[in-house]
């Protein structure tokens, strides 16, 4: 596997982690301090930051330069969602978080990395995706 392809793929995945970090930031701002899910969202955001650190480290091991933000597309998506798709209550916030984790965090990531990573990088991505599946399970349990 060519390192440049691996680095480029990991960087796109890393941008997705930054996008998640910023989306959770917005969710956390919307939740009242007394909300039982607010602290869990802070914990999920910490996980995403840890994932970003692990991905950055792997990219550097491959002699690449890690991305430092969600990129232009991610910033535009965040901006648009803040204007047009802002959740009003906890249930809507949970639905948005589930959609973000499932669609962008897991499904798109699986397509992105398919046949584009070396074994060590793929193992790292699978570890991260497994943690994100745990997030989805938690979010769904809180929704019902």
UniProtKB/TrEMBL annotation:
<feature type="domain" description="DUF2383">
    <location>
        <begin position="6"/>
        <end position="112"/>
    </location>
</feature>
<dbReference type="Pfam" id="PF09537">
    <property type="entry name" value="DUF2383"/>
</dbReference>
<dbReference type="InterPro" id="IPR012347">
    <property type="entry name" value="Ferritin-like"/>
</dbReference>
<protein>
    <submittedName>
        <fullName>DUF2383 domain-containing protein</fullName>
    </submittedName>
</protein>
<dbReference type="InterPro" id="IPR019052">
    <property type="entry name" value="DUF2383"/>
</dbReference>
<dbReference type="InterPro" id="IPR009078">
    <property type="entry name" value="Ferritin-like_SF"/>
</dbReference>
């Amino acid at each position: 596997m060519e390192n440049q392809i691996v680095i480029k793929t990991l960087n796109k995945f890393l941008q997705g982690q930054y996008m998640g970090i910023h989306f959770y930031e917005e969710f956390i701002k919307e939740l009242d301090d007394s909300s039982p899910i607010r602290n869990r969202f802070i914990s999920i955001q910490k996980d995403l930051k840890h994932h970003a650190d692990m991905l950055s480290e792997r990219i550097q091991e491959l002699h690449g330069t890690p991305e430092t933000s969600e990129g232009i597309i991610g910033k535009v998506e965040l901006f648009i969602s803040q204007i047009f798709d802002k959740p009003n209550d906890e249930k809507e916030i949970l639905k948005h978080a589930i959609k973000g984790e499932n669609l962008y965090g897991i499904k798109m990531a699986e397509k992105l990395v398919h046949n584009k990573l070396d074994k060590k990088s793929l193992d790292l991505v699978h570890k991260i995706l497994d943690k994100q599946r745990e997030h989805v399970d938690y979010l769904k349990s809180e929704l019902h």
